[in-house]
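User: I'm writing a tutorial on reading structure tokens. Could you give me a worked example: one chain, its sequence, then its tokens, then a sentence or two explaining what the tokens reveal?
Assistant: Sure. Here is the example chain.
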Amino acid sequence: MSKEFIKTTEQASNYDHLEAMSIAEVVEHINTEDKKVALAVEKVLPKIEDLISKIVEQLQNGGRLFYIGAGTSGRLGILDASECPPTFGVSAELVQGIIAGGDTAIRNAVENAEDNLLQGWEDLKSHQISSKDVVVGIAASGTTPYVIQALEKCNEHQIPTGCITCNKNSPLANTAQFPIEVIVGPEFVTGSSRMKAGTAQKMVLNMISTTTMIQLGRIKGNRMVDMQLSNQKLIERGTKMIQEATGENQEISKEALLKFGNVRKAIQYLQENDKENK
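And here are its predicted structure tokens:
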């Protein structure tokens, strides 16, 4: 007997007559609802750990991580993937976000894109997806056809699958091998899953990418030693990291950073030089 599927993301808000509320009342109530999100995520930490363990295993063996979703969920996946190269210095190929409707859908809604049963798998195939990779479907409702069918095809081709959803016992969770179900309850604005559900998905994505990159050796101590030096702020941050790690002054630290273009390599260079001079 299948478990009951209740779409809590579509249930009526706990608040009514929103238009009659003052600005102070609206923000207070939204904040009250947002406080529930971290607690909901806490309940599924073991499930998040299971998925991350599989992702790390796949990436250590030469695979890639793909997020796939529609609408807000798809955009969140793209956001998380796009932050990995500048933050951790990895290739843009390692973590990739795919959204129903393609790049146009990042900024604009694409009609019926999420209802296409075949396109999700086609989009993954365009990246030469293989059993070395891992695919995480993201859908607040857990009912998005584009995402569900993509994961079903992945399962058929022995590609590990996970998901992040905000309804219990959804079709998506029943499809994914490593499901994460963060039950945040009704939204402040009924059905607006860009709110609590979106926040929950972002929190889980932060955990997935950050923990994975730590496990892959992309953090030293608590520092982003492989970050891309794409602006002056990051050069200054990198210089400070090198100073703290080596005890060198700002001028020498910055010179080494600019020479190698990488915090980790600059630290290694200065530490090796220091050993040779002792």
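What the tokens reveal: The domain at 8-215 is CATH 3.40.50.10490 (Rossmann fold). The chain has a mean pLDDT of 95.
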